[in-house]
Structure formats: structure tokens, C-alpha cells
# Entry
Amino acid sequence: MDARTNPARATPKSLRTRARILDAATRLFAEVGYHAATNGMIADAAKLTRGAMLYHFATREELVEAAVAHIEIERARLFEAAARASAAQASAGPGQDASEAAIDAYWTLLHTQAFVAFAELEAAARTEPMLRPRLAAAQAAFDRAQVGGGFGALAQAGADARFQTSRDLGRFLLEGMAKGALTYDEPARRERLLAVVKRAVRMLNRKGDVQDLWD
# Structure
């Protein structure tokens, strides 16, 4: 039972407290990981007693379900803002490459707290059955948003298989880089990899080019 089914938990004060709990959960998932961020630690971070925490989220399942929704709302907000900024940058003048602007913007997004927290939940879901179904809808919604949103600039070839492949190439290479560990010469290697991602997306978008990657 939560604010959706219990009107007593939908008061302004109660909603602010819930938001404080979910903000604390997001931060701790990103900083210490899903399993280390116990309900007790989240209550302490939100400056609440364990009893107050239980009033709002009686079980770990209730907290996780609400946290996933909370994080996904924040990811969507950040994504939309970045898409608008990326589109504005790309239209600022001649010589601006829309796909490069989108790639740079998404790379920045992947290092924000909400995106790091969600990546941690995705990693934890591999061995945590309770998490998997709670993440599925959020993952699908985000995937659809990337197809129709401003990050269509990652694939300028049109709404076809090429479009999706170009978008996916940029997205999953960047996500893999963000989750991977470069153990030496990290700044230089990262910049080289980002440059190659941009070139690959541009090449995939060139219809009929002799170096076309698309068969």
C-alpha cells in the first residue's frame, strides 16, 4: 500500500517525505550499490527513523518499485532536457554535427546520478529476481523514448532499420564504455573511443557511400 492506494499518504508532507526517501535511495544506489544500500541505510540518509520509513514503504519490494519509477522519471527529465540542448547546439550554425552533439550529450547523461543508479539496478537484476520485472517496463519505455525523441540525431538516415541500428550502435557502445573500466591512460583511451563511435555512426548514416557499413 502506498500513496496511490492510501489517501493518508498523499498529503503534501507525506509526499515530500516519500520524495526525500526516494532521493536518498537513488543517491545510495549510485554511490554504494543496490545490495549495500539497505532500507536502514536509506532511512538514515533520509534522516528518518526506521518506523517512519516503514510507514511509507513497509517492504523492500515497495521501496524498490517506487525507486525504479522515481529514477525513471528523473532519467526521462534529464534525457528530454539533453535532447533539447543537443538539438539546439546542432542547429546553432554551419559545421555543427547533430549526431556528434547527441553522442556527447548522452555520454554526459550516463554519468549523472539517475543514470548511474539505474545502471546499478540493471546489474543487480542479473541475480535479483525481484528486480527484473520491476525494471522491465522502465527499460522498454526508455528504449521507445530514444527512438522518438531528440536523440534521433544519432541516426539521421530515416525511420527504418538503418535508423534503429545507428541509434543502437551509438547508445550501446556508450553504455558499455560507461560501465567498463579503463585501467590505464584512461582520458586518452576514452577520447579515442568516443571519436571512433562518432565516426562509426556517421559512416552508418551515409547512404551509398563506398565505405558504407550497411549491407
